[in-house]
Amino acid sequence: MAYVVSIMNQKGGVGKTTTAINLSSYLALRNRKVLLIDMDPQGNATCGVGIDPKNMELTVYDTLISGVNLIDVIHPTSFDHLHMVPANQDLAGAEIELISNVSRETVLKEAIKNYKDSYDYVIIDCPPSLGLLTINSLVAAEGIVIPLQCEYFALEGIGHMFQTVELIRDSFNPAIKILGILYTMFDKRTNLNQQVVDEVKTHFEGYIFKTMIPRSVRLSEAPSHGLPIALYSPESAGAVAYQMFSDEFISIMEPI
Amino acid sequence: MAYVVSIMNQKGGVGKTTTAINLSSYLALRNRKVLLIDMDPQGNATCGVGIDPKNMELTVYDTLISGVNLIDVIHPTSFDHLHMVPANQDLAGAEIELISNVSRETVLKEAIKNYKDSYDYVIIDCPPSLGLLTINSLVAAEGIVIPLQCEYFALEGIGHMFQTVELIRDSFNPAIKILGILYTMFDKRTNLNQQVVDEVKTHFEGYIFKTMIPRSVRLSEAPSHGLPIALYSPESAGAVAYQMFSDEFISIMEPI
Ligand SMILES: Nc1ncnc2c1ncn2[C@@H]1O[C@H](COP(=O)(O)OP(=O)(O)OP(=O)(O)O)[C@@H](O)[C@H]1O
Ligand SMILES: Nc1ncnc2c1ncn2[C@@H]1O[C@H](COP(=O)(O)OP(=O)(O)OP(=O)(O)O)[C@@H](O)[C@H]1O
Ligand SMILES: [Mg+2]
Ligand SMILES: [Mg+2]
Q: Ligand 2 pocket: which of A10, A130, A134, A151 to mutate (most atoms <8 Å of CB)?
């Protein structure tokens, strides 16, 4: 039975998509069966694994709005154990169209329900907002990973995200749990980065992954080749860090 | 009569808020009267000029949803000629609440209408999405500045943004114009950055500002002090670049 994880942060550009793609691909390399769902109209996770969002006949939009079966929108990727549900800009209209749906918060959860037996993990990449697409992802999830760029604006928003998760837990999904905060684009030469890390530690001790993802140019180059870092530059600092993170993730999810 | 500019990009973390704050403050230093409107529920532009979003009684939300007069939500800042309309997380609910409003796309435009005579420029900071908050900002605007991080995912989204502006021009706002694409966080040592710049030039020649904003740590430190770069570190590379950008902006807006 798959464990569903949402990669979310209202702040933009903090490494949500990069984390979703690379966690998924290292889990697949460790023989876990993974379904990656792109819930962002930008379709970055989709093109980051080499699928062209513009060419898609059916995407997650069709599942959410027209009730198309999830199995009909699942695509294989360059990894054996990694399947993908793509997104494209059609999804931007879904937030407005979902409003009038009585069960507007649980549509994704219902769509995934029958397929949890075919995977070990479902990873959901969220857009940078707290609208209905992100709400759907949180209601469908059991665990949440919060990528955090170690900068001031990103720090400001964490408290509010914890409150939002609290609200979701109380009204829709009692099982939801924050697995942790993952520091991304960390540059140890920058004072600000270290100050933010210290600040987060004082307020959110116990919610922080041990692995820190360094700033690594290879990570930002990989998507232009449609490849996860594991295939694009497996020896780079970014690849090593995401490999460590997926091992840490497995040790938490699958304690021996 | 104020000229209204929206700083927008669906992609997250590309420097929209940093551009909105620093363009506004250098225009104010050049004695233009500026109103900065924060249309992002994160409230980053608000705290970036030293106002605490959590302490606000009235914000842009109250203007959009409860019809509170704009004059009652305008706050002074540390600059003589810079006023601010703050935002906080209440705004996240506005997208859903605006849906049932017959004139849901023009609410901001109507709210600004009576105050355009008191300012030379109105600068609007948009959230990282194409939802109703951004649509309202585009309908209210005459010009658009698109900050662009020189990375692959940011590049992917530009075409779609031009299409969105086209749609707004055809249905709501015939006067709207893309003033230009502003390269942000540019690092000339990174091949990817240069590749993206070359790619943008081939497709969007004529829409690109001459000024490029370099990656500069001082720019990311300034918000934690609640100060625009002009007050935090006026000699830094980031400050010099935003000063040049505001001069380029003035030369376009106010040709001699
Ligand atoms: N550790 C890293 N080192 C260097 N660059 C990175 C790193 N992680 C991500 N990037 C780059 O930074 C940019 C932002 O990352 P990404 O798109 O994954 O963030 P996001 O949170 O998904 O953004 P959005 O809010 O728009 O969905 C991308 O261009 C990405 O390639
Ligand atoms: N030129 C620059 N050099 C270094 N850091 C920068 C630069 N411009 C912005 N930053 C930092 O990068 C991060 C993203 O910038 P900013 O928040 O302005 O982007 P945004 O597009 O407004 O993000 P969002 O999509 O969340 O609204 C911030 O932490 C900011 O301080
Ligand atoms: Mg993303
Ligand atoms: Mg912003």
A: A151
Answer yes or no: is the C-beta of A185 below 6 A from any ligand 1 atom: yes
The chain-wide mean pLDDT, for chain A, equals: 96
Residue A10 has pLDDT above 90, yes or no: yes
Mean of the pLDDT values across residues B165-179? 97
Closest by alpha carbon to A216, among A246, A248, A188?
A188
CB-CB: which of B44, B92, B191 is closest to A130? B92
Rounded (10°) angle between helices B191-204 and B158-171: 30
Instruction: Evaluate if residue A55 carries a pLDDT over 90.
Output: no
Question: Strand B121-125 to strand A143-149: parallel, antiparallel, or no bridges (unpaired)?
Answer: unpaired
Q: A95 and B130: CB-CB below 8 Å?
A: no
Nearest to A12 among B11, B89, B191 (CB): B11
Provide the pLDDT confidence category of residue A189 given band limits of 50, 70 and 90.
very high
How far is ligand 2, taken at its centre, from the CA of residue B15, in Å? 4
Confidence (pLDDT) at A56: 87
> In the sheet where A75-76 sits, what is the strand order?
A75-76, A82-85, A34-38, A121-125, A3-7, A143-149, A177-184
The stretch A226-245 carries a mean pLDDT of 98
Rounded to whole angstroms, the Cα distance separating B33 from B35 reads 7
Indicate whether residue A76 lines ligand 1 (CB < 6 A). no
Could you say which ligand is closest to the alpha carbon of residue A11?
A: 2
Q: Which two tokens stand for residue B195?
A: 């590749």
Exposed, middle or buried, A33 (CB in 10 Å: 0-12/13-18/19+)?
A: middle
B43: left (phi over 0), alpha (psi -120 to 50) or beta: left
Buried b (16+ CB within 10 A) or exposed e, B119-150: bbbbbbbbbbbbbbbbbbbbbbbbbbbbbbbb
Helix (H) or strand (E) holding A192: helix A191-204
